[in-house]
Structure formats: structure tokens, C-alpha cells
Specification:
Blueprint lengths: L4 E3 L1 H9 L1 H9 L8 H21 L7 H16 L5 H19 L6 H4 E13 L2 E12 L5 E7 L12 H13 L5 E8 L5 E8 H5 L1 H14 L21 H10 L11
Parallel strand pairs: 1-3, 4-5
Antiparallel strand pairs: 2-3, 3-4, 5-6
Helix pairs in contact: 1-2, 3-4, 3-5, 4-5
Amino acid sequence: MAEELRLSVSKCKLFLDCKKKFQFNYIHKLPKKVWEFHTLGKFCHQVLEDFHNAYIRNNSQCSLNVEMGNAYRRALQTYGSHMNSEMKKECHLMMDQYLQIVSHDKNNNLSANVLDVEKKFTLPISENIALTGMIDRVQLDPDNILHLADYKTAKEKKYLKDDWFQLMTYGFVMLHEDPTLTKVRCSYIMLRHNFEYLTKEFSAEELLGIKDKYLEYARQMAEETEFLPNPSILCKFCDFLESCPEGKNMADKIGTPSVYGAVSW
């Protein structure tokens, strides 16, 4: 029996973006760098996860500001040593802004309507292929439509324009969990843009089409032998830059990167 191939949004995107980086990451398993923008993203995700879990799983009776303070302090214990004062200040401002949004959300009652956070999934889509990942937030909107959201700490929104593959994947997963769904609402939540929502709704029929995309990516991965690099401006943020002459050459032309706030999946 063939070994199970586990696919994720990030794994497929990496394969499509740069096959050499894919090889370094998933085949050679080279060590990765610790980037400031990764740390900031992880920090914000943990705060929001702990904040909502206080009410979802722990049935907290504490006020919203108390639970937000608790979540922020726990995240500092985990990531604080890897963050400078600028990062801590920005994260504090973003979480305070989120607290204000939730506190004044009388119509949507966001704090109550969130059903799950950081929801892990493993979904078999063929005999030896499975989708894996994690959904940042699952909520039920006032109009009873299931709403799936992914937090983004990127400074640029343009990288997400018309790119719904990640959220459609999550919708596909939830459709298998509840086949009665007729449509799903999906949003990227831009933390650095006043928690702006980039939202689109998808029918069940549209979401079912995601399976074929993953099967095609799995076929391409299995047949790939060359793993050629795809030098671009993003080379300067590559974990494996020192192992890739083509990427190193591109990065040298671009110059030293300013990585704080860079785009990441």
C-alpha cells in the first residue's frame, strides 16, 4: 500500500511558487529560519485563540477585557523573548482594537457566535491522499450562514486579491463535516487594516471542485523530478537562501530585506 500523501494549502502553494524551495522544505527537510513576521503572526493567532477559547471551551464568566488581558500575557510568555518593543506595541494595539470591536458588536454578538478556533482537520480525499490544516475561526453569522475566517497579518492586501484557494479548502472540509450546507461564507481578516474583512460566499457545488485541484497537485508532485527554482523578489525571504545559488543571486540584486511585516502564509 502506498504511503499516505498529506497535502495542505501551504504545501501546494509552495510547490506552485517554487519547486526548489518545496524540495528543500518537504524532501530534504532543511532547517528553517525564525522570521519576525512569523513570530508576530503566531503571537496574534495565539491571543485570539486563547481569547475565544475562554468562552467556547472554558465557559468563562469573566469580562471580555479580562480574558483579552489574560490571553495577551500568555502569548507574551511564549513569544515575548523573540519580539522587540515595536512588535509588542503593535500587537497590543491590534488586540486592543479587536477587543473594542467585540465589545461593541451588539448586533452580531461575535463573542458568542464563534463556534471554534484553530480547528484542526485531516480529511482523506482518496485512498492515499489526505488534506490537513487548521481553520483560524468558525462562526455562525446572524443569518445562520457558516462563516470561516483566516487571520492575516500581512501589510499588503494585494497578495490576496482573487486568491480564495485557502478559504475554499476550508469550506470543502466543512462541507464534508456537514453535507447539508448549501453555501459557506469565507473571509480573510486583515489584522493590520483595522480588521477589515475580505469576504466571498461559495456554493456547495463550487467547494466540491476543490478536490480535483488537490488530486491534480498530488499527481504533479509525484511526477516532479527536476525541482527547478523560480527566482523572484520573494527569494529574500526564503528560509533556504544560502542553499540556492539562483535565489542568492536574485536576493543580492534586490538588496537586504526589511522583513518586519512581510507577507506569509
